[in-house]
UniProtKB/TrEMBL annotation:
Species the sequence originates in: Albibacterium bauzanense
UniProt cross-references to Gene3D superfamilies, sorted A to Z: alpha/beta hydrolase
Record's protein name: Enterochelin esterase-like enzyme
Key words of the record: Signal
Signal peptide range: 1-23
InterPro entries given in the database record: AB_hydrolase_fold, Esterase-like, Mycobacterial_A85_antigen
SUPFAM superfamilies attached to this UniProt entry: alpha/beta-Hydrolases
Length: 370
């Protein structure tokens, strides 16, 4: 008798689990156009669960696959209809935040004509935004806004005029006030447009300044000369070229043309991913230039390599919870034990992607220039 009741109980649990799985797999039909679509374009769309739906007209094509994420691995195969439109929905919900993607149409790589384009993976890729539960901190709000301006600065070492984007906070230039500077680097495959376009660094700063959470500072974003290296080949990257451009050419130009505070204690360097590797190397090579270091999904420091150098006022280490969060936590703990002001931050439920880095900048900014 006990065995019979046990069998019935297990059957109920099993059937219940099937219904639960089926309920969880139901895709809500509340899709809306992505906020990163081209003007007037209805697709791609996202729903409240984080699914993405695509619709592309290619009547002469045989197959279309949507490849999402850095490098565009895997993908969602779209189905062709009699009207010549290919449609399809991701197999599961996507992580919150910004994602690159492209279309593979009959073996050729193309961008989605419905979406805006962003430079990543060493090409202009389509972009899609999955609304995040905490998106308020990088939202466009009715607050005083700073400016992001393009500058061209001379580079004797490369025999070119190089480009940078400079964020100046609200009120900059209205008086004689001078500001600290954060030099903020992109990752591999990206360029100097990444932090303001994909990262929304300017909106993050505007919102935090309006709330009184940060001391206003300038942000400088320039190309890190990283894309000459193939993906996965960071060991072959030589820092000397970019280090010369940054230290000997860009910083002097900024100090001569903007209202900057020019001492070490008012200068910071940070970078995401490969930009973190650049930050790590340059801050160790030039410890008297920067007093604040930040690696965003870009490795760690250890006390031994910092020994005997000018001590930084802050070391900030971050990663997504889907990366290797214990690495940044353990490194920060070890640095604290060695007497350094080290802070770790882990972005929950994100991987090697821009929501991790947006959140990291939001955590980093209030700690700078204290």
């Amino acid at each position: 008798m006990k065995l019979k009741f046990l069998s019935i109980a297990l059957a109920i649990i099993f059937v219940g689990s099937i219904f639960q799985t089926q309920a969880q797999s139901v895709i809500k039909d509340d899709f809306k156009p992505s906020i990163l679509n081209q003007p007037g374009q209805e697709y791609p769309q996202v729903n409240s669960q984080g699914y993405a739906r695509f619709r592309v007209k290619a009547s002469q094509a045989d197959s279309i696959r949507v490849s999402l994420g850095l490098g565009g691995q895997g993908g969602t195969l779209l189905t062709k209809g009699a009207d010549g439109f290919f449609t399809g929905t991701t197999a599961g919900p996507m992580d919150e935040g910004f994602h690159y993607y492209h279309l593979t149409i009959d073996g050729g790589v193309f961008n989605d004509p419905g979406a805006l384009n962003y430079y990543g993976s060493v090409r202009w890729e389509s972009g899609i935004e999955i609304p995040a539960h905490d998106q308020d901190f990088y939202a466009l709000k009715d607050v005083p806004h700073g400016n992001v301006q393009q500058i061209l600065f001379p580079s004797k070492s490369t025999n070119t005029s190089r480009r940078a984007f400079v964020y100046t906070p609200p009120g900059y230039g209205k008086d004689s006030k001078r500001y600290p500077v954060l030099y903020l680097q992109h990752g591999w495959g990206e360029d100097e447009t990444a932090w303001s376009n994909q990262g929304r660094a300017n909106l993050i700063m505007d919102n935090m300044i309006a709330e009184g959470k940060v001391k206003p500072f300038i942000i400088v974003m320039t190309y890190g000369m990283t894309n000459e290296v193939r993906f996965g080949g960071m060991r072959d990257f030589k820092i000397e070229g970019f280090q010369t451009v940054l230290i000997d050419e860009l910083i002097p130009y900024l100090d001569a043309n903007f209202r900057t505070l020019t001492d070490r204690n008012n200068r910071a360097m940070a970078g995401l991913s490969m930009g973190g590797m650049e930050t790590h190397t340059i801050t160790l090579n030039k410890p008297d230039v920067f007093a604040y270091y930040a690696l965003l999904s870009g490795g760690t420091y250890n006390a031994e390599e910092l020994k005997g150098k000018s001590q930084p006022k802050l070391i900030f280490l971050s990663a997504g919870s889907k990366e290797r969060p214990d690495g940044v936590r353990n490194a920060a703990t070890a640095l604290k034990a060695a007497g350094y002001n080290a802070v770790s931050y882990v972005s929950e439920n994100t991987a090697h992607e821009f929501l991790t880095w947006r959140r990291s900048l939001c955590e980093l900014a209030p700690l700078l220039f204290k």
